[in-house]
Amino acid sequence: MLLILGSSWYASVFLVVNAALGAGLLNFPDSYRQAGGVMIAVVIQAIFLVFVVFAILILAYCSDIKSTDTYQDVVLSVCGRNAQRLCAFVVMTYCFGTCITFLIIIGDQWEEFLLYIAKDVYCKEHPFYLDRISTICVTSFLFILPICFPKRIDFLKYPSMFGVVAILYVEILVFVKYFTYHQPPGPIKTKPDHFIDVFLVVPTICFAYQCHVSIIPIYSCMENRNLKEFSKTISCAMLLCIVTYTGTAVCGYLTFGENITSDILLSYDPDIWVIIAVILIAFKTYTTYPILLFCGRAALVSLWVDIRKMSLHEIEDSERNRRIIVTIVWFILTLLLAVFIPNIGVVIQILGAFAAVFIFIFPGMCMMSAVQNLVDDGIWTRRLKGEPQQ
């Protein structure tokens, strides 16, 4: 019998951070501009972070009730079949859109890289092999597709470590550029143009910190699966995310003001340090795409199995072929859509709404159902009376 060892709590930190830190980081400085300045955005971010962390712990607690290993199965175990079907559909849609965003980012980074190393050729001759479509397609087939097929997600803990390094480098770059960049910034907002503008940062915050879909697969792959160990993982991961997102957003926005773009790296004039960041972000994106594909694939398969009313034997027999087919179709569809969408800003606003569902709606439903089950079982009543547990 083959014994599969899980991830340690500190190795899981890299998986959580790699799932949370990504496309949202590049768009985060621009969200500060939309919200009306640094102070407003930081306050809104702090408020929402309380709910983000609380929702993660609720999901982990509920997953232990029946040892579930995907987000939608957690919802099934405590909220029922209809809620699970809705959840699976939303998870699938969100992961599909996020995968498209990752491929758009890859195209952005390659454009910046080619402008630096071969500006004349790229701008004047524009050969097909340097075209945005070609770079996205070729590099995605080479670097993403081969690592999308495995059945388990924890093998990505090693490339995830490099992904975290890439994000930290971008944070340092933005910080250094804030003190050394010589172009005058555009106007700096200190208050929103309209009160409603303060809520414009909410979709970006939700999208940026949304790792909830990936949390349960990561938790299920831990060597010591319990809330105490997982709390260490979440504490370290969230601390890294807060420092990185806030530092990058503040320095990035104050560097460019109203002139900032939806992708912070595209705001800078290309130099060797920016190009290193571009390469690292591209590498990080290559390793994060499979995590979201894994979660989206699991959601799609759960819907397919439910619709087909497949038996456990049928599910196990067709698992490998189904996994391969879904992976290939998913990859090709996201690739086709990514080459026609111009930037990440609009996509993130849409995905932020879906992310809010994972952070607020489903965890809230799970908490209410779990509490109701405890009350119905009489567990809390016996505890309050000091009676022995059954």
Automatic annotation (TrEMBL):
Keywords: Membrane, Transmembrane, Transmembrane helix. Coiled coil: none annotated. It is a multi-pass membrane protein. Pfam families: Aa_trans. It comes from the Eukaryota. It is found in: Membrane. The chain crosses the membrane at residues 38-62, 86-107, 127-149, 161-180, 200-222, 234-256, 272-303, 324-344, 350-375. GO terms for molecular function: L-amino acid transmembrane transporter activity. InterPro entries: AA_transpt_TM. Residues 7-372 form the Amino acid transporter transmembrane domain. GO terms for cellular component: membrane. PANTHER family: AMINO ACID TRANSPORTER, TRANSMEMBRANE AMINO ACID TRANSPORTER FAMILY PROTEIN. This is Solute carrier family 38 (Sodium-coupled neutral amino acid transporter), member 7/8. It comes from Mytilus galloprovincialis.
